[in-house]
Amino acid sequence: MYLADSRQIRSADRILMEEKKLPGILLMEQAGKLSAETILARYPAQTSFLVLAGPGNNGGDGLVIARYLHLAGKDVKILFSHDPSRYQGDAAINYEIITHLPILKAIYGKEDTENAHIGFVDPPVLIDALLGTGIESELRGSVAEVISEFARTNLPVIAIDLPSGLDASTGAVVNAVLEAELTLTFQLPKVCHYITPAANLCGEVVVLDIGIWPEVVESLWIQRRLITETYFRSQYLRRKNDGHKGSYGHVLLVGGSRNMAGAITLAAMGCIHSGAGLCTVFTPDSCRQAVFSAVPEVMCVAVGDPGSAYMMERDANLFREILAGKTAVVVGPGMGQHVETQAFLAAILPMIEVPLILDADALNILALRTDLWNYLPENTILTPHPGEMQRLTRRTDVNERRLETVEELAAKRRVISLLKGAGTIVATPGGTAFVNTSGNPGMATGGSGDVLSGIIGSLCAQGYSPEIAAALGVYLHGKAGDTAAAKYGQEGVTAKRITEAFSFL
């Protein structure tokens, strides 16, 4: 499913109304009617609704909703943020219609706002139809005051299109917002619905088909999309009956150090459980026993003297030999940042020509040694969490500007960049971005990211392109986490349990 921004939504409306000659009043009627039907279905016992109607087309949608709720026998009131005589076009038509119905209406004033929710038989549900997708800056004036007043009431909120005050095109929160428990949006989900922190304010998002033609949507060339089960199925490479272990690739995992043997072990578990034909772990001798005991399916090349704590520059010669025949390489889990390990990474990067995934300490070394960017093959996959992303980009607003950060890194460095977290984002050098829909807070546990790097390496080795491997990897990782959470509860999710719950089905 595509993920649209405000510019694309405006273009769709313009094409449909100006070029295809479909009257906008029909779209507004459909949006309002479907919203009201959804509200009635979701809140069948609710008797009272207060519509907060803004000055533009989003307010017009709210007026249509108010009409249908009133006709369904509900107790409905409307609070206008502006003088309704300011309505234009389709919203003005719907205002004229609503004046002929016995619905209590009030224009914003501090007293009206404070008392608007009083006088219902039951506490009302708020319908936020103040603003639509066109807001890109800080709010001022009456709309901001209405939002501020009603944020204190703790009444349940249904947002129409998006919670008023959010920028549809980013995941940033630049205004006070009425947090919604349900958001009803039209035709396509918007960026703010799935990118945090804005997504945290949208509640459940329901997409309503209001009749924007598929050919119009396709003409927008939207490059952001959601990773869903449907998308996964469209990309899944089904195994052949005559396939053998050589058919599904050989992954080389590089990492581990004396105190972090678990990281490379979990990466190996993720790799094996996600379908790689073969997996070899290249690790210091101190990690050998941990790998063999936990993942007997893998081969292990232990480097250095007995008990060696970390990899050293001299180990690059053996790496060159072991690299032969491998179809994907993952570097970083648990490898540490010792100066010798930095030299080892610098030595091996120019040797790698197959799909490469850098994770964990490889990313931290990359942040320290910026000269190493020059050695990365194009479409190298980087898998940072927010802290690692901040070190890589030197940005301090990573958590507030997640989409902007990951897309900027991908374009600047010509890499495929992930940003892990709720709604993990995958961005490519060509401008495509994927936002994951699977996963849960229980996956915020040590080793979960190591498992992900192993999964992505496995998918690369099996023949998926790097960008598809990254997108499907985060989806399948999250799906396994959801399965583990269903069995153990979110608090009981561990990295190992994620690997055990892994399934393509």
Please give a structural write-up:
This protein has 505 residues and is α/β, with parallel strands linked by helices. The chain is built from 19 helices and 17 strands. A ten-stranded mixed β-sheet has the order 8-17-16-15-14-13-12-9-10-11, with helices on both faces. It has a seven-stranded parallel β-sheet with strand order 3-2-1-4-5-6-7, covered by helices on one side. α6 (141-151) links the parallel β4 and β5. α10 packs parallel to α11. The chain starts with 5 loop residues before the first helix and ends in a 5-residue tail after the last helix.
Protein topology:
Elements: H1 6-19, H2 24-42, E1 48-53, H3 57-71, E2 75-80, H4 89-98, E3 104-107, H5 110-115, E4 125-129, H6 141-151, E5 157-160, E6 182-186, H7 191-194, E7 204-208, H8 214-218, E8 224-227, H9 229-235, E9 250-254, H10 261-273, E10 278-284, H11 288-294, E11 299-303, H12 316-323, E12 328-331, H13 339-348, E13 356-358, H14 361-368, E14 381-382, H15 386-393, H16 402-413, E15 416-419, E16 425-427, E17 433-436, H17 448-461, H18 466-488, H19 495-500
Parallel strand pairs: 1-2, 1-4, 2-3, 4-5, 5-6, 6-7, 8-17, 9-10, 9-12, 10-11, 12-13, 13-14, 14-15
Antiparallel strand pairs: 15-16, 16-17
Helix pairs in contact: 2-3, 3-4, 10-11, 10-17, 14-15, 17-18
